[in-house]
Amino acid sequence: xxxxxxxxxxxxxxxxxxxxxxxxxxxxxxxxxxxxxxxxxxxxxxxxxxxxxxxxxxxxxxxxxxxxxxxxxxxxxxxxxxxxxxxxxxxxxxxxxxxxxxxxxxxxxxxxxxxxxxxxxxxxxxxxxxxxxxxxxxxxxxxxxxxxxxxxxxxxxxxxxxxxxxxxxxxxxxxxxxxxxxxxxxxxxxxxxxxxxxxxxxxxxxxxxxxxxxxxxxxxxxxxxxxxxxxxxxxxxxxxxxxxxxxxxxxxxxxxxxxxxxxx
Length: 264
Fold this sequence. Notes:
By secondary structure, the protein is an alpha/beta fold. The protein has helices at 7-10, 27-30, 39-49, 58-63, 65-68, 97-102, 119-136, 152-155, 158-171, 184-193, 209-221, 231-234, 239-252, 256-260; strands spanning 19-24, 53-56, 72-76, 78-79, 92-93, 107-111, 140-143, 175-178, 198-201, 226-229. The chain has one domain (7-263): Aldolase class I (TIM Barrel). The chain has 14 helices and 10 strands. Helix 3 (39-49) runs parallel beside helix 13 and helix 11 packs parallel to helix 13.
């Protein structure tokens, strides 16, 4: 973990040590996706709504610097397998810390996926990335989802989520992105045993904004350091408003009812 907070870290986490990350790295594997047709427009809206950082691809960082402005940048550095592939293959590092620095990224984001069929590929390259980024004091965010996305119904138990997060911390990542365990008590137990910040992923598209905001509020109450939300923001009819609602919960301790007023 970083020994001290640098300007890069402070571009992602506010003074309250919390963050709202908008995840826009999905098209790197899935191509054309509803809501991401015009990345620049979405980025302008999430900035207006109060997002802190953007998790995205090399292409977006390179082409939309003006729209990104002062948002923190977390560069997705691994991948290599897409929805067009006939058979799934393990992710690989596509970029390194020098590429991240070249485009002005504040941090890098990588998969970890302990317990997945490809953990013998992802965990070693994550370790290499951590060691490389330490030379340049670049924070590393790792997605520590037990079993990856192979069998979430069976694998994403509170115990397994805790194991996955602790493995990430032991590997030296600076902060972790994982799934919410489903209730305050179990997630608080996880947070108490992990000595690096944890942000909660936003999951699939939520039909009910109240459900999304309630889940985020629970995660924050349980000790999460923020969220990384994708589809539930850029597929929302008004990305700026839903971003503002989420930001109010994270940074202002707003109630769900108070946050819902941002959607009026």
